């Protein structure tokens, strides 16, 4: 457990428990953290880098580390003054594949989850993903968690009825999911009953299940493609991290 304490500004602190999503270098000795917390949902906080961290521990919290901390307010800025961070050794030794997919899931999460709205189910999903991404197939857990994230945030379509539309040639153009006719410029592609049933299985996947669950390679590839396209459709922004997939 890494423990850090910086100079605390005046005022009454609040205590939070969360999972680190991103760590940005703000200045020479400052870090900007994005953390999803049990108490307040998604928070963005400032802290100092590397001061008082026990020898052998990282100078800053790692993404997907679980963290307990105190924060103070200075105007509209939240200052993280003291924290204890559980260091996950797996997170210190991510492979390139694991790093890429963890970044993709982080971007999906930040694109769909509004700030300062706590949801125990979202925290549980994030915790399950953090535990699984380093020890299971990182691509599969990202696809499953991504679709369950869409479901928990109220964006997921109904696999039984949704329709798939594309423009351009296969592998190019735009992709959307809709319950209605998308118009003459869009080409509808049929989704088989088997794929729709597979999609439902992914949405209902139990992270505590100890039995081996087999997934169709073709089904996973299509579901991954639809995941990124649909999050972009819902959030109205292109996902930057999926550009790393070409390096895998």
TrEMBL record:
UniProtKB keywords: DNA damage, DNA recombination, DNA repair
Any Gene Ontology CC annotation: bacterial nucleoid
Coiled coil: none
InterPro entries: ARFGAP/RecO, DNA_rep/recomb_RecO_N, NA-bd_OB-fold, RecO, RecO_C
Gene3D superfamilies named among the record's database cross-references: Nucleic acid-binding proteins, Recombination protein O, C-terminal domain
One family name in Pfam for this protein: RecO_C
Name of protein: DNA repair protein RecO
UniProt source species: Megasphaera vaginalis
């Amino acid at each position: 457990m890494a423990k850090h304490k910086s100079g605390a500004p005046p005022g009454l602190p609040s205590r939070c428990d969360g999972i680190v999503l991103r760590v940005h270098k703000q200045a020479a000795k400052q870090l900007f953290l994005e953390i999803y917390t049990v108490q307040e949902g998604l928070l963005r906080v400032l802290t100092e880098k590397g001061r008082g961290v026990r020898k052998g521990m990282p100078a800053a919290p790692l993404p997907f580390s679980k963290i307990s901390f105190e924060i103070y307010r200075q105007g509209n800025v939240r200052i993280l003054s003291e924290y204890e961070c559980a260091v996950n050794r797996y997170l210190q030794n991510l492979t390139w594949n694991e790093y890429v997919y963890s970044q993709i899931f982080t971007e999906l999460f930040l694109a769909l989850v509004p700030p300062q709205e706590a949801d125990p189910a979202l925290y549980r999903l994030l915790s399950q993903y953090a535990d699984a991404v380093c020890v299971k197939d990182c691509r599969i857990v990202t696809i499953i968690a991504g679709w369950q994230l869409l479901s928990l945030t109220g964006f997921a379509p109904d696999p039984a009825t949704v329709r798939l539309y594309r423009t351009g040639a296969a592998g190019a153009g735009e992709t959307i999911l809709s319950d209605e006719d998308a118009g003459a410029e869009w080409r509808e592609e049929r989704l088989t009953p088997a794929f729709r049933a597979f999609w439902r299985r992914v949405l209902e996947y139990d992270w505590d299940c100890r039995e081996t669950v087999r997934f169709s390679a073709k089904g996973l590839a299509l579901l991954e493609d639809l995941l990124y396209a649909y999050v972009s459709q819902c959030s109205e922004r292109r996902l930057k991290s999926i550009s790393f997939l070409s390096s895998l």
